[in-house]
Automatic annotation (TrEMBL):
PANTHER family: NADH-QUINONE OXIDOREDUCTASE SUBUNIT A, NADH-UBIQUINONE OXIDOREDUCTASE CHAIN 3
Organism expressing this protein natively: Flavobacterium xylosi
UniProt xrefs under InterPro entries: NAD(P)H_OxRDtase_bac/plastid, NADH_UbQ/plastoQ_OxRdtase_su3, NDAH_ubi_oxred_su3_sf
Subcellular location: Cell membrane; Membrane
Full protein name: NADH-quinone oxidoreductase subunit A
Length: 121
């Protein structure tokens, strides 16, 4: 193997360990978990209060839209960290690419403001 390929062995080992842990946990919990079922045990219960009504109440689409937009912009901000760390090494080319990235981010932000996606009714 070449030395470049050997650098990926720790990543492969971590991936195998993570998948093995998840599969192992699922298998062990299925074998060792409690098997007794009863009407009281299967009943919905939250905070000591008996459930009243239907649990299938529809949520506003605005709730999910705000959650998705939060995750989207949060993930985009994560890309700023590696850029800030490598700012000097990237030079002017990195600066231009980040300005383009930030402009696209701002265009998206102004678009959701124009569409009033963040306004509650």
């Amino acid at each position: 193997m070449q030395s470049d390929q050997l650098n990926y062995i720790p990543i492969l080992m971590q991936f195998i360990l993570a998948v093995g842990f998840v599969v192992g946990t699922i298998v062990v919990s299925g074998k060792l978990g409690p098997k007794r079922r009863s009407e009281v045990k299967g009943k919905n219960f939250e905070c000591g209060i008996e459930s009243v009504g239907n649990a299938r109440i529809p949520f506003s689409v605005k709730y999910f839209l705000v959650a998705i937009l939060f995750v989207l912009f949060d993930v985009e901000v994560i890309f700023l960290y590696p850029w800030a760390i490598n700012f000097k090494e990237l030079g002017m080319e990195g600066m231009v690419k980040m300005v383009i990235f930030m402009l696209l981010l701002l265009v998206g932000f102004f678009y959701i403001i124009k569409k009033k996606a963040l306004e509650w009714e």
